[in-house]
Amino acid sequence: MKKAVQREHVRRASALPDSERLAGLRDLYPDAFAEGKVDFDKLRGLLGGEIDERPERYSFTWAGKRDAIRLLQAPSRAALIPCPEESIDFEHTGHVFIEGENLEALKLLYKAYFGRVKMIYIDPPYNTGHDFIYPDNYADPLATYLQLTGQQDAVGNLLTSNPETSGRYHSAWLSMMYPRLFLARQLLREDGVIFVSIDDTEVANLRLLMNEIFGEENFVSNIIWEKKFSPQNDDMYIAAAHDHILLYARSMESWRPSLLPRSEKANIRYQNPDNDPRGPWSSGDLTTKTKAKGHSYPITSPTGKVFYPTTGRQWGLALETFQKLSADNRIWFGATENNIPRVKQFLSEVQKGIVPISIWKHTDVGHNQEAKQELNSIFKDAPLDFETPKPSRLIKRMLQIAASENGSIVLDFFAGTCTTAQAVLEFNREDGGDRRFIMVQLPEPTGNKQYPTIAEIGKERIRRVLAKLKSENAGQLSLPSPAQLEDLGFRVFKMAPSAFKPWVGEAAEPEAYARQLELQTDPLVEGWKPQDVIWEVALREGFGLDAQVVPVAGLEARAIWRVTDPAREQSFVICLADRIDLAAVRPLNLGREDLFICRDAALDDEAAANLALQCRLKTI
Question: Which residues make Cβ contacts (< 8 Å) with residue 615, sequence separation at least 6?
Fold first, then answer.
């Protein structure tokens, strides 16, 4: 029979999100595994006193949490198909827009982008009772998405409101957020961070949820954003003028925020009233509440006045240190030399930037009204009505703090109208950076005939921002410059059913089982397209969506392509021909480390045996 030679097959579903954690557990406690599964009794014994067996202990749970965990652990059988016709400069760009359900998309991205994303920003539904949420189908979430987008005939709607009268009002929202945040953490680099916008309705629950997923020790800040600049008199109690932005690090030990650039406003308080040759300076308090031995000595001013620390405080410097600073003219007693001493801080010696603070004023990062005006200035021909869009200045502040490094990947999987994409493109232009974005947006209906879904608005916004940036380049000299080297394109991928036939498992009747085996002789569905199959295989193999897919020179007629991931500096060759002739693939010069992927039905035993000896062979 044809199966005499054993083949390694390409996966038909995404990698399991828990695989990395299980692998880590196996490395630490190999003797806690039996027959490939965790033996919890053995693990409990190995951990000894580390197991908490108290009848009551602190935990965070809600109705539906187990279902959310089961949904997280189910692999995705969806695919992302390329749409060059909706993209700009598809072959050369590294920016990506994914139209699809974000949980399925995160699972598909898991293997290729595990530990690679520098910054995530999301603006999820706020759960106000009218916002849309994602009531996931625990049996088959992909089927629900396909029904919504008209790719399957069925009655169903992915989007529903979550009224406050619902008995599971908070639980439904938490169940929606849990698997998405879990996967988001897996995608972050060790020095990566996530920003999540939220209002007062769910901020307390979100904080607990993120503590569980990211670890309470990795909480950085609850940033207060002033989203409105004038009060609303129609509010019955207190007008809400702010939103929360929860900031968590993947690892607090590995992440440090970038300093914000100093402004003229920050520098203006530095003066030079005594004409110190070291330049402008500002004076700082010399006292502290910290108790330390020998820090309550008297200080005498040039006029002879003696000062002691005020009640409950001490000098912040030891006497010896104070004397050195005084000798270096770094102690200031005021213009009359008769005031309480303060220490000079020279502008030339302070940090080159400013440490970010937790209150973001609308004057610095924009507000909701500015965001509406910004969106409508882009869509002048078709004004859009969104209640609470975010201004691009707000996202740029996050990029300044968390994605200043060149090559940073920025992910937004509740992309909406793609403010994050605009912020990345414009900020790259402003500072010469080369950040890349990945946007994920569900095609939520808008009721707008010109732009029937939010995904369509997002894609069009990116196109118009790119057009504006390109127009700014017009008329420049044709010399190499950062503006001409920047990435001014984006790739569009859409979620679709897999090109692989589903395997339904062992059938009860032998005849049915035999028919199933017969169907799997060629596992590709009828009408499959080569580019769709190539990209599905690439993602399954962990290659990013910025990979290059090119026909192998001289072998174009034999349906052979080379797929290269620039970030991993790896490639594989894929052949989708019906039959493989060894002589035809000989020009590839495949070596032991080269990965060659082809259709299982295209190989006979001799070809399979020879290729398996020659290279790393996988079959579809």
Answer: 590, 591, 592, 593, 594, 595, 596
The CATH 3.40.50.150 portion of the chain extends over: 78-262+354-474+482-495
> In this structure, what is the dihedral angle of CA atoms 90, 92, 93, 96, given to the nearest 10 degrees?
40
Q: Give the tokens for residue 140.
A: 């088959």
pLDDT value of residue 479: 46
**Residue 7 to residues 149, 522, 539, Cα–Cα distance (Å):** 37, 14, 20
pLDDT per residue as tens digits for the range 262-299: 877 778 889 999 999 999 999 999 999 878 888 999 99
Q: For the chain, what is the mean pLDDT?
A: 87
**Residue whose tokens read 């045996």:** 609
**Model confidence pTM above 0.90:** no
What distance in Å separates the CA atoms of residue 602 and residue 587, rounded to the nearest whole number? 18
200, 240 Cβ separation under 8 angstroms:
yes
Q: Would you place residue 236 in the very low, low, confident or very high pLDDT band (cuts 50, 70, 90)?
A: confident
Query: Would you place residue 3 in the very low, low, confident or very high pLDDT band (cuts 50, 70, 90)?
Result: very low
Q: How many whole angstroms separate alpha carbon 585 and alpha carbon 582?
A: 5
CATH classification of 78-262+354-474+482-495 is 3.40.50.700, yes or no?
A: no
Give 390-408 pLDDT, tens digit per residue. 999 999 999 999 999 999 9
Radius of gyration from C-alpha coordinates of the chain: 30
CA quadruple 273, 279, 285, 287: dihedral positive or negative? negative
Neighbours of 45 (CB within 10 A): 12
Cβ(31)–Cβ(42) below 8 Å:
yes
Beta bridge partners of 287: 315
CA distance 564 to 566: 6
| 3-class SS letters over 207-256 | HHHHHHHHCHHHEEEEEEEECCCCCCCCCCCCCCCEEEEEEEECCCCCCC
- CA 331 to mean position of chain CA atoms: 48
